[in-house]
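Sequence only, no structure available. Ideas?
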Amino acid sequence: MTDVIIHAMFLAFGLILPLGVQNVFVFQQGAFQSSYWRALPVVLTASICDTLLISLAVTGVSVLVIENHWFKIILMSIGVLFLIYMGWMTWKSQPNTVDNHTEAFSFKRQIIFAASVSLLNPHAVLDTIGVIGTSSLQYSGTEKVIFSLTCIFVSWFWFAALALAGRIFGRIDSSGKLMLLMNKISALIMWGVAFYLAKSIYL
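Reply:
I predicted one. Tokens follow.
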């Protein structure tokens, strides 16, 4: 049983650690909100979306996604357009000082954007469904349940810690200059992922 937990933890952390759109948004909201608790909507939404994707992956949707070529193309095409849009919005955003919180999204907007970057990011969706879904096939019964719950726990822990890290970073960067630089880097990452996806689809 311990082997199952260790396997799930390493797998989940391996998928969630890279700096992607979802992580960037959670981190930024942690930095911009006036308190950590005000960033909870983005933390909870990202965690719930990951829980949904992991659950679907383990229950067998991975087979449908992997085998349906046109579904993958449509999903990835939507993702390319979404990443281009998010990259532009992030690039032109101008964070002010922490005291002003001009980039702090409202409760509703946090939920909408967090759900979008979680469920409309084909790279994350395919990774979760393909990798976790495929890996779960080696388990059954109680072991599969433990594998799934461990992956879900890692996701919830990570987003809560990421928002907290953003909060600490935001307090240190009172001028907003470092966050502005991070916005530019984040936008370039989004466009890079969009280009990579487009290349894999059309070339």
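Residues 96-102 have pLDDT under 50 and may be disordered.
Hope that gets you unstuck.
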